[in-house]
Amino acid sequence: MTATAGNRTRAGFRQVRAGHLFVLPYVVLLALFGVVPVCYSVYLAFTDAGGGFAGFSNFTRTATDYRFLPALGHVAVYLVIWLAMLSVLVVSLTLVVHQLASRRTKAVIRLAYYIPGALAGASSVLLWLFVLDPTVSPVAPLLKAMGSDHFTDVITPGHLPVIFAIIAFWTGAGGWILVLYGALNTIPADVIVAAKMDGAGRIRTALSIQLPMIRKSITYMLILAFAAGTQLFVEPQLISQASFGVVPNDYSVNQLAYQFAFTQNDFNGSAAIALDLLVIALVSTSLFVTRGRLFDTD
Amino acid sequence: MEMVHSNAHGRRPRRAGRVRGAALTATAVIGALTLAACSGGQSVGGNSSVADSGSKYGFKAASQDSKAQVTVWVDSTREPIAKAYNKAHPHAQVKIVTYDGNANGSNTFKTKTQLFDRAGSGWPDVAFTTDNNSASWGSFGGTGDLAAVNKGLVPQTTLDNFAKGSLDVCTVKGVTYCFRNDLAQNVLWYNKKLMDKFGYQVPTTWEQYQQLAGKVAAEHPGYLVGTAGDAWTPEIYMWAAQCPANDVTGAKTIKADTSDPKCVRAAKMLDRLIADKTMSTLSLFGSDFVKNEADKVLMLPGPSWYGGSVFQGTLKTPAGQIAAASPLKWADDDQTVTGDVGGGAWWISSHSKNLKAAADFATWVTGQAKYGSALAPTYPAYVPAARTWASETQKSGYYADDIVAPLSQAAGQVWSGWGSAQFSQEAIWAKVVQAGMAQGKTVVSQLPAWQTEIENQARTFGYEVTK
User: Fold this and answer.
1) N or C, which end of chain B has less CB nearby within 10 Å?
2) Is the CB of residue B46 less than 8 Å from the CB of residue B110?
């Protein structure tokens, strides 16, 4: 081994060690608050209250519970609406903002998009409770025009998936617009200029150049939004309490898991439902990853 | 069993309060995961082995320390009485923690207790809840978290001072687990000034009541004879009709038949009055009702706490208008029966290290008619305190007539055929019947769905359901 090669190895080793140091705090937190709880719920899901091995009985018990399928259905409908809204509206809004000429307008709009997302989840839902109550809502005329004179008219079961999707969009979309905006910025200017010279208009550029080039960011957004969406909890939980129970406290799958743990004292069943959600998230994520070719190198 | 309402005890509901409660529970979920991860799955409570006839308290108590500080959990309405205790007992200070009082179905008391069970520590010594439905959950046959109070913890003479039947709701298999804070017996509240003005007689039967409602609809449209917009609607109308929807016949058995004629008669009445618009379907505590219907209440069947909490507090009806009449009777029935809506309770933890001080606190607060200089916000379950409370209430001059006689009469008329199971009848009613009412369905048409949901909920909690 020559001296140069040795130096290079030592330098490489130092780099690797620095990398490890940077990652360490994250790994510790991930282990404590991510991995350990997941392992614990796997343990819970396959054992009974006394700690004995229970096979799949917790899964069958919770899946045959009369509230399970309706909850699953609620979340599925919500996800379809929410993901469709997210992919269409966020992408179009980002493209529009990106094409604005004035730097100042762009900055103001980016901030405006971001602000609702800066509100913590529960407090933004609280805000929506007022928006949705025709007695106090600033958009009361609109609600009344749509035939909802009272809060209970607004929150009928048919409206709920849309309402939750709107709340989620309002709180979450701004952040994604910023992320996609950043992704658009990474497209080399000469590519755009070349397109222009070839005669592509703004729409053609967006469809044929920009969208394909930020495809991975969009897939990434959908994966995370899907995972967050299956965990629907705060919105229905708060609306349930605000509606004095007319919106049931077992509307979503996560709420059902909560009911299992805390009103039925059945932590094992609760863990089984949590694992159901994990499996659903993993399966659909891998679909997204393969279909969206997330890890392909260009 | 959680209750969906929070307002049972003189506390004015605020949306923020509700949401705060929910935010708390949301935090608890995160806490649950964290705690669960650390505790290694040890379950300290959660079994029936706590009963112990050899112990002087009737259960396996923690090793006692007469100097250990007592922690009490109260809601904001009960905070003054806890402070008053500290003032009266300078040498036995309790640590006061305020929480949402289990309000609005937040279930905080049970949620936190179950987390403490898994962690093996952290329980409060005494907790107040706005509902009285924790007994079957925390009994020796349940999680074992609640201390028995009639097996040596307090003398029987103290327990005998609670209103007859008031401890039944927290008694499981002869073991009593609570000190009832207040009674919530239903009476017929009415606006005497309006009734006199319109020239109406106060009804004594449900049939007369319906007749009068018909007159109100024709002569004074817009005025209300009741509301059916809250989750406790069945505890007012179905309970008084002796509808067998919630007959808890054993530790894990329940009888329910909502197709019974007694349920149908109450359901038909509700439908008729709702159609006539003399019965509101808005929640009494919603901003809608307060804004648009507060001055339209002619009569209002409901619990004792409506007087202070609804009329005086939420609706701000001026003094000298409101009076109470005895509960209404169905003409065909042999005797008058009524229901009750909530009524808070004080619970002692079986894990307390200072049971004597905890019991001393709980019996002292239930024995008070006054919270400092103010009158207790609700009708005390402790009879000597109730007497003082009644005479003081009359002296306050808010009511247009004597409310003490009808209230104390109603206290003894609560029908015992409506039990207190581990699940919430209110949550069931809200989820099924009220949600249906919001979509324009009649109550009668929803009786089968109500039955199905009761059966489903009951089975989920391991109950055997018979018709």
Assistant:
1) C
2) no
User: Is residue B227 domain-resident?
Assistant: yes
What's the predicted TM-score (pTM) here? 0.83
Considering the domain architecture, whether residues B163 and B272 belong to the same structural domain is answered as no
Name, in order, each residue with C-beta under 8 angstroms of B383's C-beta and a sequence gap of 6 or more: B161, B162, B163
| Sign of the alpha-carbon dihedral angle for B407, B408, B409, B412 | positive
The answer to whether residues B86 and B200 belong to one domain is no
Domain endpoint, select from B381, B411, B437: B381
Q: Is residue B391 one of the residues assigned to a domain?
A: no
Q: What is the helix, strand, coil percentage profile of chain B, to 5? A: 40, 15, 40
The residue whose two tokens read 């000597």 is: B384
HEC per residue, B62-121? CCCCCCCCEEEEECCCCHHHHHHHHHHCCCCCEEEEECCCCHHHCCHHHHHHHHHHHHCC
Helix (H, G, I), strand (E, B) or coil at B176: strand
Q: For residue B128, give the H/E element and its range.
A: strand B126-129
Structural domains counted in chain B: 2
Contact across the interface for B114 and A265, Cβ inside 8 Å: yes
B410 with B364, same domain: the answer is: no
Contacts of A265 in chain B (CB under 8 A): 46, 114, 137, 142-143
Residues B346 and B406 in one domain: no
Residue B283 amino acid letter: S
Q: Which of B101, B38, B107, B30 has the alpha carbon at shortest distance from A233?
A: B30
In this structure, the answer to whether residues B308 and B376 fall within a common structural domain is no
Contacts of B379 (CB under 8 A, 6+ apart): B182, B183, B184, B185, B304, B305, B386, B389, B407, B411
Are residues A232 and A252 in contact, defined by beta-carbon separation less than 8 angstroms?
yes
* Contact at CB, B29 and A233, closer than 8 angstroms: yes
Task: State the residue range of the domain holding B138.
Answer: 7-183+342-381
Same domain, B143 and B266: no
Of A66, A246, A258, the CB nearest to B438: A246
Put the strands of the sheet holding B299-303 in their side by side order. B299-303, B186-191, B322-325
- Nearest residue to B136 (alpha-carbon basis) of B9, B257, B2: B2
Q: What is the 3-state secondary structure (H, E, C) of B307-370?
A: HHHHHHHHCCCCCCCEEEECCCECCCCCCCCECECCCCEEEEECCCCCHHHHHHHHHHHHCCCE
In a domain, A217, yes or no: yes
Residues of B in contact with A233 (CB under 8 A): 26, 29
B361 and B224 part of one domain: no
The one-character DSSP state at B127 is: E
Q: Which residues pair with B323 in a beta bridge?
A: B190
Report the domain count for chain A. 1
Q: Is residue B370 part of a domain?
A: yes
CATH of the domain at B270: 3.40.190.10
A58: in domain: no
Q: What number is the ipTM of this complex?
A: 0.82
Residue A156 lies in a domain: yes
Interface of A with B in 264-293 (CB under 8 A): 264-265, 267
Is B287 found in the same domain as B164? no
Q: What is the pLDDT along chain A (298 residues), one digit of tens a residue?
A: 455 556 667 777 788 889 899 999 999 999 999 999 999 999 999 999 888 899 999 999 999 999 999 999 999 999 999 999 999 999 999 998 888 878 888 888 888 888 877 776 778 888 888 899 888 899 999 999 988 888 888 988 889 999 999 988 888 888 899 899 999 999 998 998 999 899 888 888 888 889 999 988 998 899 999 998 999 999 999 888 888 888 998 999 999 999 999 888 889 999 999 999 999 999 988 888 888 777 776 5
Domain limits at A86? 67-291
- B388 occurs within a structural domain: no
Q: Chain B residue with minimal CA distance to A262? A: B111
Q: Answer whether A265 sits within 8 Å of B283, measured CB to CB.
A: no
